[in-house]
Q: What sequence folds into this?
């Protein structure tokens, strides 16, 4: 199976760096972006399977970024991160097409399972379009 390609989007640079590093050590091809606009620019240039997207970011928040990703790249799966105890916001994200949401702090192994399941769904959906 080819590597899963993941984009981690969070305005906390240390968080992005930490998880990109951890994912790459686990055979997940990860990149990072520090804002919604940076993430959208990255997606124009690089294909990814799954975006791990923080909900709370200055400027363009996670829901706005999610809507744009789904409009421009409908097959890319998105897992929303929320660190503010906001289950409602996570559910709102799912209403806009997010695959799943996970609360910070989270277990990296749990997130990796969700990433792999999200990629499986993307591959299935690509097959249906093919």
A:
């Amino acid at each position: 199976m080819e590597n899963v390609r993941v984009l981690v989007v969070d305005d906390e640079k240390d968080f992005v760096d930490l998880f990109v590093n951890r994912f790459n050590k686990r055979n997940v091809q990860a990149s990072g972006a520090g804002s919604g606009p940076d993430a959208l620019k990255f997606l124009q240039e690089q294909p990814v399977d799954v975006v791990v997207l923080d909900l709370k970011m200055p400027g363009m928040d996670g829901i706005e970024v999610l809507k744009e990703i789904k409009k421009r790249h409908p097959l890319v799966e998105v897992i929303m991160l929320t660190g503010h105890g906001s289950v409602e916001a996570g559910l709102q994200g799912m209403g806009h097409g997010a695959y799943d949401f996970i609360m910070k702090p989270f277990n990296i192994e749990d997130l990796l399972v969700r990433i792999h399941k999200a990629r499986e769904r993307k591959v299935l959906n690509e097959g249906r379009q093919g």
